[in-house]
Amino acid sequence: MNASAETPRLLSSDLEPHPMLHRLIHGALMECWREALLAHPTLATDVALPIESDIHWMGRVGQGAGWLALPADYLTLVTLRMNDWHRPATIITAGSDAHHRQQSHVAAVRGNPWRPVAVVEPSAFGHRLTFYTSQGGDSAALAEALYLPTPHVEHCLHGEEWVRMPRLLYHDIVAHTALRTIEILQQ
Question: Alpha-carbon distance 82 to 68, whole Å?
Fold first, then answer.
């Protein structure tokens, strides 16, 4: 089996006479895929997508904190780095991490270019990524911002289904999906 990033016809048309089995395998695949991405996001950079959002500054442009709207298909953040930072940000998920609860309203405590922090938090329009602290002024910009999208099956023009899986997680996802399907069928 080819372990390339794109895997054709994972859900074969041989299952068409058995639509219930097709839905069962499809559901197990999506759940196992999602679990693998959340458990090992750094192994999935071959399917990571760039965040294409404008930076909204909380105060003066390029000074202090800012935020980005995350895409609707956002699952998890892989990396965030501004061009004036010395390393990528430590990523925190709002409400679920002790570090987030420790964040102060004093800008110096939240982060700096040597120790940047990014917090993923819910908002009225989905998720938002707030980052602390930039000092680049008008030249401050995203150097790198990657996220993993929610797993989904892509449909081609010819009716074929394609799944874009991370190359390094491919075998784990397929094996986990097979085990999950067997467990469900035995119930």
Answer: 12
